[in-house]
Design a protein that fits this description.
This protein has 95 residues and is mainly alpha-helical. Helix content is 68%, strand content 8%. It has one domain. The chain has one helix spanning 5-69, and strands at 81-84, 91-94. A two-stranded antiparallel sheet has the order 1-2.
Length: 95
């Protein structure tokens, strides 16, 4: 019995096409993984930036609160209390 040589070639070309398709699908999968990893990096950078901005805002607010609560003293201090004498002979300024 003789085998048909055309049938062998058809089987070999089907195998070659199948292997090429598998390689293409694998490359698409690797590209998708690479894109996903880059997206995660960008999300991490954005999260870090948002956290740093939040910390900076909190720090500024904390310093503003400390400045409001700090006692004023020195030549540039604003008076905290002014007492007027009813006879208008003296004014007492408490700093």
């Amino acid at each position: 019995m003789r085998e048909n040589p055309g049938a062998k070639r058809a089987g070999g070309s089907a195998l070659l096409v199948t292997v090429m398709l598998l390689l293409m699908i694998g490359l698409v999968g690797l590209a998708a993984l690479n894109t996903t990893m880059r997206d995660q990096q960008v999300a991490g950078f954005q999260n870090r930036k948002r956290v740093e901005a939040h910390e900076a805002d909190h720090e500024q607010e904390h310093h503003r609160d400390e400045e409001r609560r700090a006692p004023l003293s020195g030549p540039c201090a604003m008076p905290r209390h002014i007492a007027l004498d009813p006879t208008l002979r003296s004014i007492t300024v408490l700093v």
